[in-house]
Specification:
The complex is a heterodimer.
Chain A (H helix, E strand, L loop, with lengths): L8 H5 L2 H13 L5 H28 L2 H22 L8 H24 L7 H32 L1 H9 L4 H26 L7 H8 L4 H30 L18
Helix pairs in contact in A: 2-3, 4-5, 4-6, 5-6, 5-10, 6-8, 6-10, 7-8, 8-10, 9-10
Chain B lengths: L5 E9 L6 E8 L4 E5 L6 H8 L7 E6 L2 E2 L5 H7 E4 L10 H6 L15 H10 L16 H13 L5 E5 L7 H17 L3 E5 L3 H5 L4 E5 L2
Parallel strand pairs in B: 3-8, 3-9, 6-7, 7-8
Antiparallel strand pairs in B: 1-2, 1-4, 4-5
Classes of the chains: A mainly alpha, B alpha/beta.
The complex binds adenosine-5'-diphosphate and magnesium ion.
Adenosine-5'-diphosphate binds next to helix 1 of chain B.
Chain lengths: 263, 215
């Protein structure tokens, strides 16, 4: 595991070339992306540097009292990010998103860390944090996608839903068709990535491990575990978010809320 | 609320953001047809949707045979007080699939599906050929769709029908057949109908009728 080539400060500075290329394209085409590009670059650098320090100490302390709050904080940030992308929902989905992300990630994360990887001690921060981080990142996208899809499907099919309601359907029966679409919309990117992995793309985690000197055959095993764990986490997260949220499309009388009818 | 089949008092709902509001009261006796009349945009469709509990009123109350809607869960109420939209939605599948779809819902699962004979009888009375049953429902014409939707609701054996311009897409002949069927249906049990219609002939078809003007 020791075969990696460290990047020196001088070498790091050379990345300016790459930022310059991106900036040039933006400037030439007047994309208006120069400011966000520079700001994003600075932020990425600072955030990564900070998280490097944080992780270093968290790994050293390696106690659940630090790990669990950190994971919850990650979940909170992921939930906020997911919520930020869903603009048309007529209520604040923040809490439901947080619950879905936390539950799905903890269930799957614990299975992977304790049962499959089995580090010593079982809660080793060096394993927990990267695994949970990957779960949060993927689940966040999927949950946002699902929720957005559920809302837009129902919004686009108000008449259908109302027809089903008037024919005696319960709220659940009236929207279950759209809920199916929403859950599969959230899961689709992950399922698709299972198909092409290794052929079209080398996932970031595997790339990182190989660069860090890990034997490719070991890296591939890790990557496989990661892929299937992401898939199951995404499935749980998408299911949870729609189950927790669909009722908010209805008022206490079981009619669609008026906010859905606007615009 | 006495003997009224359906009664409603001070049903309220905002119609726009400028403060225009719908506030209506009324009732129907058993065997009666209540015609809702008024200019376009007055809130006639809105009233039917509120009575069918597809829209929630911001105030007021309604009673079915004296039983407040607060005491009847919305899905049950909707089956008894059937709202038939002006633009009925049809779902994928054949006409027969559409007609029987409600009997797959939890609320109706215990009920036997209506016999084919009954369906064919309705089709005949509304001048629709029995071969229609196997046709994809989305290929029906506007008039055929309206009649299919009415049959779909009749099969649920409601006590009150809320009909939003049921004859608007029908020709003279079909209009008469539909009114004849409803005329018979409403006194058979006795039941009740709330109907939005701009057609004078629809009105004349029902001897026991009342009118409610809004707007
Ligand atoms: N989904 C909706 N959003 C906003 N306004 C609506 C909506 N549906 C109906 N309205 C308004 O409510 C009023 C009453 O509509 P409606 O009940 O359909 O009238 P009517 O059936 O008497 O022609 C109209 O001014 C209409 O523009
Ligand atoms: Mg109308």
């Amino acid at each position: 595991m020791d075969g990696y080539i460290p990047i020196s400060n001088g070498q790091l500075l050379l990345t300016v070339i790459l930022v310059f290329i991106t900036g040039l394209i933006s400037a030439l085409l007047k994309l208006g992306l120069l400011r966000p590009l520079l700001w994003g670059t600075v932020r990425a650098f600072i955030q990564l540097t900070l998280i490097g320090y944080v992780l270093k100490y968290v790994f050293q302390w390696n106690t659940l009292w630090v790990i669990v709050p950190l994971l919850l904080l990650m979940s909170f940030i992921a939930a906020r990010e997911a919520t930020r992308r869903i603009t048309r929902i007529p209520y604040n989905p923040g809490l439901n998103t947080f619950l879905s992300l936390t539950a799905s990630t903890f269930v799957v994360g614990i299975i992977v860390v304790v049962l499959i990887i089995g580090p010593e001690p079982w809660y080793s921060a060096q394993v927990m944090i990267p695994i949970f981080g990957m779960l949060f990142g993927n689940s966040m996208n999927a949950v946002a996608l699902s929720l957005d899809r559920m809302y837009s499907e129902i919004h686009a099919n108000i008449e259908e839903v109302e027809q089903l309601l008037s024919l005696g359907a319960t709220p659940w029966e009236a929207v279950v068709g759209y809920i199916r679409k929403a859950v599969s919309a959230g899961m689709m990117p992950t399922i698709n990535s299972l198909m092409v992995v290794g052929l079209v793309s080398l996932p970031g985690m595997m790339t990182g491990q190989i660069l860090a000197g890990m034997n490719p055959q070991s890296a591939v095993r890790y990557q496989f575990v990661v892929l299937v764990m992401v898939a199951s986490c995404v499935a749980i997260g998408c299911l949870m978010i729609v189950l927790l949220s669909y009722r908010k499309m209805f008022d206490q009388d079981g009619s669609l809320v008026d906010d859905l009818r606007r615009n | 609320m006495g003997t009224a089949l359906l009664a409603f008092k001070d049903l309220t709902r905002p119609l726009d953001d400028e403060g225009r509001r719908l506030v209506v009261s009324g009732k129907i006796e058993p065997g009666e047809v209540l015609f809702v009349r008024g200019p376009s945009g007055a809130g006639k469709s809105t009233l039917l949707k509120i009575l069918g509990r597809i829209l929630t009123a911001s105030g007021g109350e309604a009673w079915l045979r004296g039983c407040s809607w607060k005491d009847i869960p919305a899905p049950q109420w909707r089956l008894k007080v059937q709202y038939v939209s002006q633009k009925p939605v049809v779902f994928d599948g054949t006409v027969e699939d559409n007609l029987l779809m409600p009997f797959r819902f939890r609320l109706l699962k215990h009920k036997p599906s209506p016999p084919r004979e009954q369906i064919k009888e309705y089709l005949e009375e509304l001048q629709l050929p029995a071969t229609l049953l196997d046709q994809p429902a989305k290929t029906l014409s506007g008039g055929e769709t309206a009649r299919m939707a009415l049959i779909r609701s009749l099969l649920l054996e409601p006590e009150v029908l809320l009909l939003d311009e049921p004859t608007a897409s029908l020709d003279e002949n079909n209009r008469q057949h539909l009114n004849t069927l409803l005329q018979y249906w409403v006194v058979e049990k006795p039941r009740g109908i709330v109907m939005v219609s701009h057609n004078e002939q629809d009105l004349q078809a029902f001897p026991k009728r009342n009118s409610l003007f809004i707007g």
